[in-house]
Structures are given as structure tokens and as C-alpha cells.
Amino acid sequence: xxxxxxxxxxxxxxxxxxxxxxxxxxxxxxxxxxxxxxxxxxxxxxxxxxxxxxxxxxxxxxxxxxxxxxxxxxxxxxxxxxxxxxxxxxxxxxxxxxxxxxxxxxxxxxxxxxxxxxxxxxxxxxxxxxxxxxxxxxxxxxxxxxxxxxxxxxxxxxxxxxxxxxxxxxxxxxxxxxxxxxxxxxxxxxxxxxxxxxxxxxxxxxxxxxxxxxxxxxxxxxxxxxxxxxxxxxxxxxxxxxxxxxxxxxxxxxxxxxxxxxxxxxxxxxxxxxxxxxxxxxxxxxxxxxxxxxxxxxxxxxxxxxxxxxxxxxxxxxxxxxxxxxxxxxxxxxxxxxxxxxxxxxxxxxxxxxxxxxxxxxxxxxxxxxxxxxxxxxxxxxxxxxxxxxxxxxxxxxxxxxxxxxxxxxxxxxxxxxxxxxxxxxxxxxxxxxxxxxxxxxxxxxxxxxxxxxxxxxxxxxxxxxxxxxxxxxxxxxxxxxxxxxxxxxxxxxxxxxxxxxxxxxxxxxxxxxxxxxxxxxxxxxxxxxxxxxxxxxxxxxxxxxxxxxxxxxxxxxxxxxxxxxxxxxxxxxxxxxxxxxxxxxxxx
Length: 589
Ligand code: ASP
Description:
18 helices, Gyrase A, domain 2
């Protein structure tokens, strides 16, 4: 037996017991004829004590120990002289009677402490050492608990966990596919699934009316800060449901997870907001509703006063930032530079300071009387002491910029406490999104999302304005300004699906080639169905109070999509290339 207990287990009540622990050397030190070694495993840290005069042999072994050596220690549990209230085992120590080195270790390239001295790159290269640190250990434990509770809840609701394949057919719509060459089918490729979307719908056709899966998805996207090329979803689908049924089940799941995983009770009813209200009031389809600072449109108030910047635009909007009227010139200049960054994209920033005495001072005093400036500030919802920030442009673009500015000001004012949770359903998304560049519609969610039945006339119209008005029973679950999940009620009739492909500019031949299997399946009695998927990594990160998902994935990739520990992706040799017909053309079939 390597150990009788773990390193996080022993307490004062175990005093007098002889125990054996196994683990890693956190640190060892000598003090006045005594040596102390901290031994660490997944469960905690325990102090070992060696008396140099009575145990010279063990002391000799201790002298040889380095950080991260693997040891096995036997001894008697005793009450500690100087207790450490910070760790659960801090009241005891083990007086050693035997010590074995099970394995030596090179000196680790960074400290294995909660706060490590190692930079990101070096920790990524030695991920297995980084994973020994407390914060990552706690992150992976939370992830495990989360997965367990997801299964508990959904099993309790009659959902079946069914696996779907990873080697599928490439149907690029949305993100780019990762592809895998097939040796047995020269010149042909599988794709890795961006999500199990079509399979879960086929499972509904097959009659498995409640499906879920905690499943890996693959998207070959340019990686933004918090994206991974492979990530995990809690993927779900249900038959014979309307939007309300889906929201109810998954509101229940989120409530269950909050309670069981982090002991947080959320409000009995999660608020709902239409996509249009989210955009108009928060400039985002994933609003952070932990604080107000809503966007107000002031277009008609500001136009026609000779200020050409405002006169020529579709939309002018403002937010009132609480308590910031005292901003100095330097601070407003800095903010102006901030909104001009490409990530925000504004051309400039207009501000109004509403002083404590109610007087106003703005950067456009030349164009407006004090009364007019007062009226604009009031329309922006400003109180005494607030700083009103104004941006303009095309409507949705300007709103989005204001949304980004609102989040920034929320951060600066400390309004975004990671341990306060404000969940929200965003509903009634537009079905389609027009892209000026390619002059075509894209599915806002995905091409299997159904138009609202009451919008079917517009859906079959050939006018762009009509198609733009079509809404879907699509919904996103948003937490603290982060989209954690989304889904929709699906199309279940072959002809509606066909029409959707047509609207998206996918020819009948192309649709048949890529999606023939699902169009066909819909001809064999497809039930009405709908579902959604949650970003599992993100749910974990947010529950852990973090915005970045990387710590919640055991072996993540870096910003370039590389695994720096494996040094992947990597070249393959010529023989492999030839076998897969990657250098030559495959023979015609
Ligand atoms: N498959 C969708 C996604 O990955 C989610 C859904 O509609 O269920 O976003």
C-alpha cells in the first residue's frame, strides 16, 4: 500500500495514528535541529517533521530532497506547535519514522504555487506541472462537478446521452471545418463536426425525443481571445416542444447547476429580453444586466443644429456614466482615443458633464445652447454628477460601439463583480442577417432554425425588407455579458428547409449534395423539435468567476491554435502525405 491517507485528510482527531502519505515535495526547510517537509497531492498539503538528532538517517534523505521529488512518508500524527490556520491540515504534522524517495525530479521551471512566477508560455509547455497548481486543480474539479450535475439533472428529466460521430461530412456554413483526409477513399475528406446539429435533429426523426451529449466541437476560426479550436458543448434536443418548453427545462438546469456546483440561488424566473431591445438598450445581443447605464437614442434632439458630424448620420446615441462628471480633460482625451481604437471603431466622442450644481459643460457647446445640452443630457438619462458619452453612425454599428463603451465604463467603475450572477434569456432573434460585402443573407443562428410561423409570409416573399423582418424562435442564454448558450425551434418540414437554403443562396444541387440526408429524413415523419447547446468550458469559467476558459480545459491550445506542449500541429512525413494523396492527385473514381 503506497498510502493510508491523502495529504489533505488528517486532522487533530487523528493524533497518535501511524499513517503513510505519498506525494510531491512542495518545499523543505531546516530550523534549529529540525527539518520540515511539505508534502502535496491532489487533496492538499501536510507538514512532515524530522528531528535531526533522533532520526539522522531520515534527515540525510531529507537533505537530498528537491522540489517536486515524489516521496512516501510514514510517521505519527501529532499536534503542531505553530498552527497554520490557512490550510485544513494546519493543526497537525507527521513525525516521520520512515521516508522513501519514489522518484527524483528536475527542478521545475516555475514555482508550483497558487501564484506562480512562470509566464504563460513556459507554463503551457509544462502544462502537466502547471496542472499541479491549486487554481487549475480547483478549475478541473469544478468542471468535473459541473459535468456530473449536468448528467444528474438531464437524466432526471428523461434525457438520453447519445454519442454522435466525429468523422462527418464537410458542410461549411458558419465557421470553417477542420478536415481529415481519408486513406481508404483517396482524395476524399471527412470533416470534424462544428456541432452535432444535424445528428441531433436526425435523432429526433428517429424518435429519441430527449437527447443530450457533453461533446467536443471543432471550428477552424481565427482565434479571438477566448476561443479554442476544440471546445465542449452541453448539446441538447427535444421533440414535441415549443420555445417555452425548452426554456423551462434549461432554466431548471441552470438553476440546478448554480445551486449544486457553487451554492448560488438564482432568481426564480430568469428575465427575458428581445434581441431588438437588447440591441437598442445595451448595444449588444448579450447584455450585461448587472448594471444600468442604458443606451438612449438622441438623434432627433441633436440634428439640425449645424453640427455636421451628427447631421449626416442615421443614429446618435448616448450613455450616462454615473459619477464621472469630474473627468479631467486628460481623461476625456484618453477616452476619445480609446473609442477610436480599431476594436471599437468610432471616429470621435462627444461628451457632456452634468455638474453637481446641475450646470452642464460639453464638447459641443459651440453648437447647442445650455438648455439644449441640458435636454440632451436628460434624454440620455443623466443625473447630477454624470458624464454623458455620445457616439453616432449607422444605427446598429453605433449601438454596438456604445455597447462596447458601456462595458468598458462598467469595468472602470467596478460594476462587473464576477461573483454576482445576472442570467438572462435573449429571445426573438431575426432569422436572417444581410451581409453587404457578399450581398446575401446568412442565417443568424444556423440554417436549421425555423422562422416564426406568423412570419411565414415574409419568409416566402422575395423582398429584402420582408426577409429582414422575419424573426425566429431562437434564444440565447446570457450570463454577465457572456453568451453561454443558444438554440432554436427547428424547421421540421422538407419544403421549409428547402426554402431556407434558397434564401441563403444555396442552390438546390448544392443543398442536395451537402444536406440531402436531412432534407430526405424530414420526408419520413419528422416531429416538431427544438433544442440548444451551452458552451461547457465557458459555463465552467463563469461559475469559477473567470472570463477565460483556458484554465478550465486540461490541455488547451494557445492563441495561434497550437498545443505548445506537443508542438502541434506539425508536419507529417512524405510517406504519410502520399498515402493520403496530399501531394498527388487521387485517381478518378
Ligand atoms: N448547434 C448549435 C450551436 O452550436 C446550438 C443549437 O442550435 O442547438 O450553436
